[in-house]
Structures are given as structure tokens and as C-alpha cells.
């Protein structure tokens, strides 16, 4: 079906390597840039202390107040950089989802649509692709990775748009992603029922994805292409 052998080679040579490199770049190039933020915070604290202690003496200010101000400056730096790190982790999920989506739509345009249909914007969507594949006996929603990719879509939309339909569905499916405890090594549920509000996930707030989460979603987008190639050959 649909020149399956050609597409298997193409998936392996183009689609999967790009997704692999995206995950590798996050793990080995982006996140290591934050390895020294504790030392940076200590340096900011020390610099602030040195600046404050060198100022003309104020009888209304004692050294403990200066020490508190210096600590707060270092703490603010650390928290701010942690938020930037979280925002980058969050942002990689929409990158992964839309990369995968555009790859699948590239297959749709080049292989499934007829040449005269390729520029019809009304046909350039996953629903149209699914329908045409199902008409030939292939339901991509039955592939093992589909459930994870469906969750990936909810997370991507939540990160981009904050509260909304996708966020509401994700809160029921993965409530742990909305608790900061999750990013710090484990989910500790609140002792009372609450509905987390999602305002600024692109600023590292409200949604707390971990590297493991991102890798899980990324691996699903990569493995999808092996499953899809198998399904094309079997259909």
C-alpha cells in the first residue's frame, strides 16, 4: 500500500533522525547550560553582599538585613533560571508534536492526496488522512503509540494555549503534570480536591514536564514511524 518500501526507508532516513536529534539536543546541549545555576546564584548573592556592605553605613540598617537582601538576590536568580529551564522543557513538547504532525501531513500530501488536491487547504489535516487510510483498511489510531501521541497533543496545546479544552482533558488524564512536585522527583497529591489553573506554561509555570516526560513523548513519535511503516506494508 502506498509504496510502503520507499516510505519505510524515507521514515528511517529523514523523519526519525530529525526527531532523535531534537531529543539529543535537549538532553546534551540545552539542559546542560543550566547545570551551574546554583553556583551562579551563590555568586550573585556574594556580589550583592559585597556591593551592599561597601555602601556608606546606615544606622537603620544592620548586617543581618544586608545578608537577607543578598540571599534574596541569589534566590531570585536561581528561581528565575529554574523557570527558564522549565519553560524550555515545556516548549519542547509542542516542537515534538508539530514536527511529527508536519511529517505525517507531508506523507499525506505526497502520497495520499492526488496532485490536484495537494493545495486544497481543506484537505490538509489529520482527520482527512485518517479517513482515507481507513478506507483502505488502515486505522492509525490502533497503532500502539497512538495513545501516547494523543496525550502529547493535549500537552502541546496546553503549553501553547494554557487553560482550555485540551488543558481540561489533560487535567483528568495526567493531573501530576500540573504539580510542581512532579518536576522535583515525584508526585505528592494535595490533601484536598483542587482544579489547577494554567496561565503561563511557556514561562515555566503551571505545567511541570520533566526530561523523562519529554523523552517518552519523543520516543513515541519516533516509534510511530516503524509502526506506520509496518501497517502500510500489511494493509
Topology diagram in text:
Elements: H1 4-30, H2 37-53, H3 63-112, H4 126-135, H5 146-161, H6 165-173, H7 180-183, H8 211-234
Helix pairs in contact: 1-3, 1-8, 2-3, 3-4, 3-5, 3-8, 5-6, 5-8
Notes on the protein architecture:
With 235 residues, this protein is an all-alpha fold. The protein is built from 8 helices and no strands. It has one domain. Helix content is 67%, strand content 0%. Helix 1 (4-30) runs antiparallel to helix 3 (63-112), helix 2 (37-53) runs antiparallel to helix 3 (63-112) and helix 3 packs across helix 4 (126-135). The N and C termini lie close together (6 Å). The mean pLDDT is 93.
Uncertain residue segments: none
Number of H- or I-type helical stretches = 8
Can you give the mean pLDDT? 93
Structural class: mainly alpha
| C-alpha end-to-end distance | 6 Å
Write the H/E string, N to C.
Answer: HHHHHHHH
The number of distinct structural domains comes to 1
- Judging from the principal axes of the Cα atoms, what is the shape? elongated
Q: How many runs of DSSP E, i.e. beta strands? A: 0
Relative strand content = under 5%
Amino acid at each position: 500500500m502506498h509504496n510502503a518500501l520507499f516510505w519505510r526507508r524515507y521514515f528511517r532516513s529523514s523523519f526519525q533522525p530529525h526527531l532523535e536529534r531534537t531529543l539529543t539536543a535537549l538532553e546534551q546541549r540545552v539542559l546542560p547550560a543550566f547545570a551551574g545555576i546554583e553556583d551562579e546564584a551563590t555568586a550573585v548573592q556574594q556580589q550583592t553582599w559585597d556591593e551592599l556592605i561597601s555602601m556608606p553605613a546606615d544606622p537603620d540598617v544592620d548586617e543581618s538585613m544586608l545578608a537577607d537582601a543578598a540571599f534574596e538576590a541569589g534566590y531570585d536568580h536561581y528561581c528565575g533560571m529554574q523557570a527558564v529551564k522549565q519553560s524550555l522543557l515545556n516548549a519542547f513538547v509542542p516542537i515534538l508534536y508539530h514536527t511529527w504532525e508536519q511529517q505525517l501531513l507531508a506523507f499525506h500530501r505526497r502520497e495520499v492526496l492526488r496532485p490536484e488536491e495537494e493545495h486544497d487547504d481543506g484537505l490538509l489535516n489529520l482527520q482527512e488522512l485518517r479517513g482515507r487510510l481507513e478506507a483502505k483498511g488502515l486505522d492509525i489510531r490502533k497503532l500502539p503509540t497512538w495513545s501516547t501521541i494523543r496525550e502529547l497533543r493535549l500537552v502541546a496545546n496546553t503549553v501553547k494555549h494554557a487553560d482550555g479544552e485540551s488543558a481540561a482533558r489533560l487535567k483528568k488524564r495526567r493531573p501530576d503534570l500540573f504539580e510542581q512536585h512532579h518536576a522535583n522527583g515525584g508526585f505528592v497529591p494535595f490533601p484536598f480536591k483542587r482544579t489547577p489553573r494554567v496561565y503561563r506554561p511557556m514561562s515555566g509555570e503551571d505545567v511541570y514536564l520533566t526530561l523523562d516526560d519529554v523523552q517518552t513523548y519523543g520516543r513515541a513519535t519516533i516509534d510511530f514511524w516503524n509502526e506506520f511503516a509496518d501497517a502500510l506494508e500489511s494493509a
